[in-house]
Amino acid sequence: MSSESRWLLLSDGARPTEDIYFLESTAPLLRSEGHDVGRLDVRGWRWRLARWVLSRQPGANLVLCRTLPERALRWLERERSAFGRIVYMIDDDLGAAAADDTLPSAYRERMARAAAQQPRLLALADEVVACSSLLAERLRKRHGNVRVTPPPLITPLPDLGHFAAGPTVAQPWRLGFHGTRAHLADLDAIAPALAALQRERDDTQLELMLGQYTPPGLAELPRVSCPPPLPWPKFRDYQAHHRVHIGLAPLLDSPFNRGKSYIKFLDIAVMGGVGVYSNRAPYTEIVEHGATGLLADDDPAEWQRCISWLLENPEAARGMAEAAAARLRREL
User: Fold this and answer.
1) Is 171 helix (H, G, I), strand (E, B) or coil?
2) What is the pLDDT of residues 241-283, one digit of tens each?
3) How many C-beta atoms lie closer than 10 Å to residue 290's C-beta?
4) DSSP characters for 27-64?
5) CA atoms within 13 A on the CB side of 246
6) Domains of the chain from N-terminus onward
7) 252 close to 298: Cβ distance less than 8 angstroms
8) For 78-92, how does the pLDDT look when each residue is reduced to its tens digit (9 = 90+)?
9) DSSP one-letter code for 22
């Protein structure tokens, strides 16, 4: 097999992005066409071995994902001519994240460093792959070859047996928010709706996977669990075995959020749920209101109405969950 048919992903540790957009989606297709595909961890002490491997792969095609360690980037800039195509994958607007004062300061600082490096990665790349159309539009101002690859389905969809018996006080409705700390402001926007639901009903269990970062006003509500965030491999296993009836995906209008993909539509379906989503892109691109989920404006009262309607109409809720899964099976 020639090195021209070899693809190597240079990993800086962004495993969710690497798996979703390449290693478990595109890579299997490349292998089926006869390409050799691998992953090289280029962080820390691993860089010495990775550099040795790369120096013996003339003509290999490279995939870069979000960032590279500085010494790996400098080496690649010097040795660019030794390689074939370079594809740069990105699933966030790094500059917008750095400028968003609603995000945790440590996260903003990390995104600022990544944004400062991004022009050099774009200069190396023959092609840029963005996760959403709005992010692609921004990147086209900085690169001449940008394409959109929405998040693909890489996890099997479950049956919906957890809807079968019907939620009860003993086996309550399971509502879930599984966003990261980067979405705390989005969660805060719907907090009044969640507080009202948990206080007015006794048949709902709310899970907020934020651990110690859960807003106290939500953590103290009845029937709320706050498991800590999980590393990517453990989260995938958790998704595969944990079920929700209703998933929550609020997304405020901000420059950072406008670059997001509709990955939460997939996440909620993988956990067997029907979603309530903010009524804006990217969710308006995939959610058919009343058929594959519900779209809610920013008013917390509307979020409460949407969630309550699903709670009062369990057959319709299951039907939407089934329709969302069917769309993913058909189109993704």
Assistant:
1) coil
2) 999 999 999 999 999 999 999 999 999 999 999 999 999 999 9
3) 12
4) HHHHHHTT-EEEEEE-STTHHHHHHHHHHT-TT-EEEE
5) 30
6) 3-148 (3.40.50), 161-331 (3.40.50.2000)
7) yes
8) 999 999 999 999 999
9) I
